[in-house]
Fold this sequence. Notes:
Number of strands: 15
Radius of gyration: 17 Å
Largest sheet: 7 strands, mixed
Strand order of the largest sheet: 6-7-8-12-11-14-15
Amino acid sequence: MDFFDAFEKLSLELKTSRGKTLLLADAHIGFELSRGLRIRTHFEERLAEFIRERDPDLLILLGDVKEPIGLSFTMKRLLMGFFSELREIPTVITKGNHDGRIEEVAGKFPNINVVDHLVIDGLLLLHGHTNLPEVEFVEAYLGHIHPACGIKRGRVLRKTKCFLRVEKFLILPSVNPYLEGFDAREGIKMVPFLRNAKKGKAFLPDGLYIGEVSFR
């Protein structure tokens, strides 16, 4: 697996007043611990290497940085290792539903700030599992639902991760290449402020528009 190519396609780089801003969603570090895997993938080490190579002026992790909802000794160790590799990069975590007690580790790193949401240049950044904050914004970026769409090739229907745009909201896929995405038509119901959305537009990670997705 070409991890760097996957990370590049599953992330998003923006130009903001803070400089080059790199967005990543739903890394789910430590997913092996919750899924009964007996081998370590060292996914988080490769992700940290990718981030360092991209060298953003600001890194924004759109929630669910970790997989286990709790914070075991092993999970602390994985997060400490991951955050240590990013010491030189200003980082904001928009806390997700899996990020319980993450402040206990992130708080040891002066470059990391954990927030519920962030607004930069009219861009709202959040995880997506709670109600929409009462702030003004032009466009929003979130994660949470790991969107995926089915693409039919001949008689074979293949599910693939996608970026999903719903009006002024852009939902990023999980940056973790080991995690399969969820059907966007079902996943949208997990975003409180988009439950009544009727349709969205799906894009492959390489930017190719693949069509409209109906949620009704």
